[in-house]
Protein: Homoserine dehydrogenase
Amino acid sequence: MPSIKAAIIGFGTVGEGVYKIVNEKRQQLKQHTGYSIEIASILVRDVNTKRAVAPSVLVTDSIDDILNDPEIDIIFEAIVDEEPAYTYLSQAIEKGIHIITANKKMFAKHGPALLKHAEFRDVQVGFEATTAGGIPIIRTIENLLAGDRVHRVQGILNGTSNFILTAMRDEGVTFEEALHHAQKKGFAEADPTDDISGSDAFYKLMVVSSLAFDEQPEWEEVSVVGIDHIQTDDVLEASKAELRYRHVAEIRIDDEGKLSGKVGPVLLDAEHPFYAIDGVDNAIIVETDYLGKLTLIGPGAGMYPTGSAMVADLVHIIRQLKPVPVLS
Amino acid sequence: MPSIKAAIIGFGTVGEGVYKIVNEKRQQLKQHTGYSIEIASILVRDVNTKRAVAPSVLVTDSIDDILNDPEIDIIFEAIVDEEPAYTYLSQAIEKGIHIITANKKMFAKHGPALLKHAEFRDVQVGFEATTAGGIPIIRTIENLLAGDRVHRVQGILNGTSNFILTAMRDEGVTFEEALHHAQKKGFAEADPTDDISGSDAFYKLMVVSSLAFDEQPEWEEVSVVGIDHIQTDDVLEASKAELRYRHVAEIRIDDEGKLSGKVGPVLLDAEHPFYAIDGVDNAIIVETDYLGKLTLIGPGAGMYPTGSAMVADLVHIIRQLKPVPVLS
Structure:
């Protein structure tokens, strides 16, 4: 039985989710892919923190321990910031290591370069987890591109914003109270600026744009508005009129091939598929020439949903591997 | 440039959709798959009917013209009934021809046997178009199975029933008027029995069951209720209470591995993701261990949506093809 050795870079919620799923589903993954998968090493900031990790796993604070291990086939990257993630992944690709990332901020900016680099080095790049957590939006769009044409994508792409808007409506709490609640529940980052300012949704939209249209609009031409100016009174008044605020990111291509994108809150009625999307769920509508409108809804964050998206990338990458030549 | 020769069996709405998409997207398909794809022959009932088909395509009423053509690599099958579809596809597999089917009635019953046969003969089977038209539910579940576990699938799987329920609510028309309208629009079959009795949704549910759980419940143990007993007054009264009738098919597996399925109308409120699904749209909720609840919504029928699902299967099959050995 051939085996795959993987490393996890960044052991927060998502990294831990990947570790757990790979271990819990070891037998099933072996059966479906033909490979035995082992998490060999994990990069952390502080090696002294207690973690529920098997003693056989190398827990290190040095990236070199991972990049210089010639047995590592795949790296899962679940760091929040652009750097050092981009540098690490570039180095990994250069060494012929496949990469799977959940890092939207980094991938929005450097995804196109990483993909080119990876193609040149003949390695695979998985980025399903960068956008909409567990929802398989990347794979779905990728599959559509061979025989159809995407012309518009709209989404609720930030679970924290949606959670806050939902709490303001359902519980009548203030924006600050709802945000605090989201942080306590572990949905919002310690620094929630990217979530509530619309930047997080914007990064995801740019990842989708690169994939669906093979380019991104000029970043400064995309209007990005967050939810931080919305008052509870606005939300409750809308609710009385059976309308709901949703934070929606949208990218479209016109007949001349010009891209336009925008990110911000909108008011929707019960006929809209986004009306019923509450809490941390995400939702995306993809519009194409032949299929028409396809809507996907699911958990936009969380240890297991996002971890499962990275494991789905792992399976996909393994299935693309060229069979190892057998010496006869 | 290697090429693929395909035949279409059954040239109704769906078969014609496949023909159009393959021709309209010839260049794009070539670019994405590396293969030039040609529809070489089409099986029809009456060769004298006028059709918008290129003169180079063999239009025939004899299946032998297709099965005995050693150049045919793939067959698209879009016949409605169980037979002769099953016989034709069995013969095709026996000859090493890949098959792509949209025939839910046939595939619900014979899918497991066809898949075993295909595995033995080392050919591929695509059946995305059997269930929920253009929605990529089959590929999505297939991808989930490697690293996750599905425990429940719920769906609006019959577009005609949903169209009728929507028309009864929106226009206050009777069941018969709404059905007539659906037939005039080309959504319902000339014989709509399978649609309105729930059988069509049942067949699709059984296809999903085989895929998600590797087995089907005993057919006679699944309660199947259609929409033909629902009165306009019921629909309008529900609507006043902000409830909507939806025809929902459901299959689940319990912790002991026992399957249970049911098909029938239910009343839903605006919080349910199926509430906003109007007209001929389909919707499916897949529940898994890790991902949680994933909902897919899209066109459940139609020339282009269903045709696009078959073309997606084609692309997937081509990508699985083993590289042709090059003699050096």
